[in-house]
Amino acid sequence: MNVELLTLNAKGSILPKTRRFPQPFSSSKKRETCLFLNSAIRASRVYRIIMRLLLVTPCFPPLQASGSLRTQGFARAWSQAGCAVTVLTTVKRADQAGMPLPVDGIDVAEVDYQAPALLEKLRQSGKRSQGADIPQSQVAPRRPSGVLAWLHRLKERTGVFSAIRMPDLTDYWIKPALAWARRQPPWDAVVSSFGPYSAHLVARALKHEGRANLWVADYRDLWTDNCAFTGLFPFTVWERRQEARCLREADLIVTVTETLAVKLRARTPRPVEVIYNGYNPEDSKNLMPEPFFPSDGIRRIVYTGTYYPQGHDATPLLRALKEVRRTRPDVYTRLRLEVAGWNTELWAQLARQHDVADAVRVHGPLSRQDSLRMQRDASALVLLDWDPRDGVLSGKVFEYLAVAAPILVVGGAPQSAMGWMMQRTRRGCHYGVDHRALTQALTDLVTAPERMTPIPDRGFLAKLTRFGQSLRLLQLIRDRLPPDVKMRRAA
Fold first, then answer.
1. Is residue 343 part of a domain?
2. Are residues 316 and 334 in the same domain?
3. Domain contains 37
């Protein structure tokens, strides 16, 4: 697919140039891109420039984190839409890498930084070996001792040194990142993605110095109003002030749910838009065909992701399993809860407390490919919700939307962002804390699986692709560029 562009030579003459997108599109991507480009062509028959975009984010592949999917999706979609995209990110440590994703057509600048040795040890504390596979218990994570143990408890409670609250290890990345950026030509727009907050601080400095015409601040989660981490005084005073400056100076703010958007709008006069994390329909096509689970007749309920004790509560699901064991032992023997991710030892503890450890299999953190295979082969998928006021709608939600299994939402309340998404997409049911309804759902999963089969709203789901959401953000950026850098009609 070709797009005719115009560039200027040193004398200011217009020179034609044909830019070919880096890779052939799937049919869905062709449709989305054509819609975007057609809208551009209606406004302008000639592109005077290639839009130069800088994406500032330490959270980028191969960093193994759900946020990397969002930022990689932005960069790749913008590149395929004809923009010159540069990503400014960190050099990943050996224990951080683990999720290689395509970055063809994107200029990725990895800038290294040096944090104190104690903080580097703190970053690694509590991690466990990847790929562990243990039936009823979890290998204990590497727990620190001494001063490191105190810092680790502080980190888990407040969110400091966790890419969320201040201070953070990437504070040491800000200066070298700015030094690199100042050696480059200016950009038309800079987009920073939180967390960590260091991305916003770098982007704000670049906008202030005139190295970008437009600054977009992306909030994958809230900073000082974070629902999971309270921060640490007196840093909370300073970071609140820093965030206020960011919210005041950014030209556009985007976030992942309407609930979070409402909270941000209360703190800034700047426009706030919702750009969902989205899903990639191509993910399932690139998986190994071999089943992840054996063909043994057991119905497997799958959870892949981190368990956050600050807001998650899987108790209703474990109570339901216990009730099935009491009332329908024949059904219980055909059920298995499979859990993979971080903090999975908390699942094992809950399973023991409810006397259902024999029905719970706890894996360690798995590769993204294995996690996707688990989801693909699941009989049902589990999401853990937060308090409805928190507005959490993680990337995991959209990952689940892309597969066929029914989604069981546990915890929180049906009026939450997750509850709304389940109702709107018709991909699952929000059970909240109703363990009796969950008991019936688990029973139906074995005895009457047709009752659990979702009938999704495919029209609405088609709007939630990561590619489509990324193009929507690109349109918002282009609409807000100053007139002298917008794509416009030739004189």
1. yes
2. yes
3. yes
Residue 82 DSSP code: T
Same domain, 18 and 109: yes
Q: Which range marks the domain in which residue 103 is found? A: 2-278+466-485
Give the pLDDT of residue 3.
Answer: 34
Neighbours of 440 (CB within 10 A): 16
Question: Based on the domain organization, do 225 and 115 belong to the same domain?
Answer: yes
Domain co-membership, 172 together with 300 = no
- Residue 413 backbone dihedrals phi, psi, to 5 degrees: -150, 155
Whether residue 491 lies inside any domain: the answer is: no
Predicted confidence (pLDDT) at residue 245 exceeds the cutoff of 90: yes
pLDDT-derived band at 489 (thresholds 50, 70, 90) equals: very low
Task: Evaluate whether 327 touches 319 at the Cβ level (below 8 Å).
Answer: no
Q: Is 76 inside any structural domain?
A: yes
Distance CA 303, CA 460 (A): 24
Residue with tokens 């009332």: 327
The CA-atom distances, in angstroms, between 206 and each of 164, 232, 250, 276, 389 are 21, 28, 11, 26, 34
Task: Give the total number of structural domains in the chain.
Answer: 2
Torsion angle, alpha carbons of 8, 12, 16, 21, to 10:
0
CATH of the domain at 127: 3.40.50.2000
- Same domain for 476 and 438? no
- Token look-up 């099935």 returns 324
Give which of 470, 440, 385, 421 is closest to 83, Cα–Cα.
470
Report which residue type is found at 22. Answer: P
Sheet holding 428-432, edge to edge: 133-134, 360-363, 335-340, 299-304, 380-384, 407-410, 428-432
Q: Are residues 35 and 161 in the same domain?
A: yes
Amino acid 343: pLDDT:
84
Checking if the pLDDT of 467 tops 90, the result is yes
For residues 331 and 480, membership in a common domain is answered with no
230 with 376, same domain? Answer: no
Specify the pLDDT at position 41.
43
Please tell me the pTM assigned to this model.
0.81
Residue in the structure block whose two tokens are 């869905």: 28
Distances (CA, A) of 143 to 96, 139, 225: 18, 11, 29
CA distance 339 to 328: 23
Q: What share of the chain is helix, strand, coil (3-state, %, to 5)?
A: 40, 20, 40
Q: Estimate to the nearest angstrom the gap between the alpha carbon of 316 and the chain centroid.
A: 26
